[in-house]
Amino acid sequence: MIGYRAKRLPVQLGPAAWNAILPPQPDATPLEREITADVVVIGAGFAGLSAARRLRQIDPKLRVVVLEAGMLAEGAAGRNSGFMIDLPHDLQSEDYAGSGDDRAQIALNRKAIGFAREAVEEFGIDRNFFDEAGKVNGAVSAAAQAHNQTYAKHLEGLGEACELLDAQEMLALTGSSHYQSGLYSPGTVMLQPAGYIRGLAMGLRWDGVKIFEDTPALGFERVGPDWQIETPKGQVTAPKVILTVNGHLESFGFARGRLMQLFLYAVMSPELDTEMLKRLGGQARWGITPSDPMGTTVRRIDTGQGGNRIVVRTCASLRPGMRPGSGGLARAQTVMQRKFDQRFPQLAGLKMAHAWAGHLCLSLNGVSVTRQLDTGLWSGCVQNGLGTARGTLAGIAAAEMAMGETSAISTHFNSETAPRRLPPQPFQQIGANAVLRWKEWRARAE
């Protein structure tokens, strides 16, 4: 009998702050009985919920069940920075410029954004949670400014709009004199990621998709033509299963020794009062990615997205066991407090209200694992740190593969090679973390 069991379940560190600043959710609805379905999706993040929606688009009568190990938006979907980026954004490059067919990748990213936009319209998701505002690559050092100029030329060569901002324009936008220049591009959507995920799940439930929270898939095995998925208190039987668990794909025995399991860290300020906002200045909403990919991401949000707050995200650590360490978060909090104070001296010393770790998964060669794994089993995993857009695409592709549909999205993922094998332990962890620390130091001002 063929079967797969999870060796570990997701472990979270710190609150999913994007979720915490929204009104409370209804109590979890765990699976506590035996049911049947046509397709079971394991994981209710960007990939899993996108897969469920695409399945129902292909066949509105399809019985779709989604299993989520925790609560909606408490996992990675509520722990990212909320940038749904349309342009090349290669985190392993010096300036984000891709190494492949950038026009094709831009077209795919925009399909993901279009898919999400249609969901917002169809399900009445709050438009504050899907703000088509664009983003800025912020730069401080001369090297970073050169990165921006190189990237601007790259985008212009692709026929993509962008605008270089000087220090005064960056000050007017952010209220911070830290940035010496910036590169604005208009196509990024600034999400309230937890709000979007919760709205998408609510819409899917209205559409007939059954979503069970607090229901981890402990394992699944082949029984005749079907898969039986075991959960702590129930069981689902279905002929088709789609795994959308990102790096936890490795927990089920797939792509072992080929996936880099990383954690990034972030903090969020308390809600800024009127006097603080006056001191801060700048505009009410904006998002900055660093011109060096190992720099610091900063966002400002307003009451429509959960309060007037500032989010800072930086520091990374490789954790092959997929368990974040409290020491890593404590170090990152110290670093991020210092970076907040540097950028906003008018608010220096303001203690952050939330701090958390967020899991992401990369492959050495930047490929996904979105393909058929076994008879009746598909995956939409390994998002290479770009979970909002690439996760959406992987979910769509996995759903299409499961249903025998072909599109530009599924064709792209079907053409990808396998992830390259990683160096053996302990060299992998020691070496990777040393490189991450060095790159973090090099990008310390960004």
Largest sheet: 8 strands, mixed
Report the count of strand segments.
22
- Radius of gyration equals 21 Å
Total helical elements: 11
The outline comes out as: globular
Strand content: 15-25%
Q: How does the helix and strand content classify structurally?
A: alpha/beta
- Largest beta sheet: what is the strand line-up? 8-9-7-17-18-19-16-20
| Integer average pLDDT | 93
Percent helix, as a range, is: 25-40%
Overview in brief:
The protein is an alpha/beta fold and about 450 residues long. It has helices at about 15-20, 45-60, 100-125, 140-155, 165-175, 195-205, 275-280, 325-345, 385-400, 410-415, 425-440; strands at about 5, 35, 40, 65, 85, 130, 135-140, 165, 180-185, 190, 210, 220-225, 225-230, 235-240, 240-245, 260-270, 285-290, 295-300, 310-320, 355-360, 370-375, 375-380.
SSE inventory with pairings:
Layout: E1 3-5, H1 17-20, E2 34-36, E3 39-42, H2 46-58, E4 64-67, E5 83-84, H3 102-123, E6 130-131, E7 135-139, H4 142-157, E8 163-166, H5 167-174, E9 181-185, E10 189-191, H6 193-206, E11 210-212, E12 219-223, E13 226-230, E14 235-238, E15 240-243, E16 260-268, H7 274-280, E17 286-290, E18 297-301, E19 309-318, H8 326-343, E20 354-362, E21 369-374, E22 377-381, H9 387-402, H10 408-414, H11 427-442
Helix pairs in contact: 2-6, 2-9, 3-6, 3-9, 9-10
